[in-house]
Amino acid sequence: MSDVAAIEKVLQVYFDGLHEGDTKKLGEAFHPASHLYAADDKGKAADMPRADWFKMVESRPSAKSKGSPRADRIVSIDFSGPATAFAKVECQIPPRYFTDYLTLLKVDGRWQVIAKAYHTVTRED
Description:
Elements: H1 3-20, H2 23-29, E1 30-39, E2 45-49, H3 50-59, E3 73-81, E4 84-93, E5 96-107, E6 110-122
Parallel strand pairs: 1-6
Antiparallel strand pairs: 1-2, 3-4, 4-5, 5-6
């Protein structure tokens, strides 16, 4: 499998895990040492370790359970070397719509997300 195809597969697992609220799938896509980053409403950097994110995911109803539509999209994948890549993706858990910048590492022959920086917009359709 090519590296592009392998990363696309990881991103699909991420999309599925996010839509289904499945932290097992998210754990396949995200490295145990991964963190999520965003600017909070005060313009400060927010840093969330993977374990804290998983607790949040497990505490809310999934988009799938609410019958929410999916609109996952890989915008781009860029490689800076044989074991580092960057993906820009769009996904949603209505009423929240995300643009994610995912940094991936190929460790032990397997691609995983090591960092997610994201922006979210809340809107009622």
